[in-house]
Amino acid sequence: AQSVAQPRMACRSGCGARCIAPSISSPIPGMPGGKPAGVRCIQLDAHNRCQLFGTPGRPAVCANFHAERSVCGKSAQQAYKNLARLERRCSVT
Q1: What pTM was estimated for this model as a whole?
Q2: Is pLDDT of 16 > 80?
């Protein structure tokens, strides 16, 4: 059986879950040491939109994240919970 490619899910404007829940080890403008899990990225504006989106200063780890229904769920709250759970599972203690 041949699998059918699913169309990419567009990020929800104003969600911000991927910019808060996971840790980011690479430098971010304004956060040269990256950011710990659960900490709001300094580049999120008041509407939870990335101020670096579409600019060369946006870290590759951010640009390479693609929203998927299995991770993002049906709401920003589900996305945050799922990403936080993945972060805990992947964390080295």
Answers
A1: 0.81
A2: yes
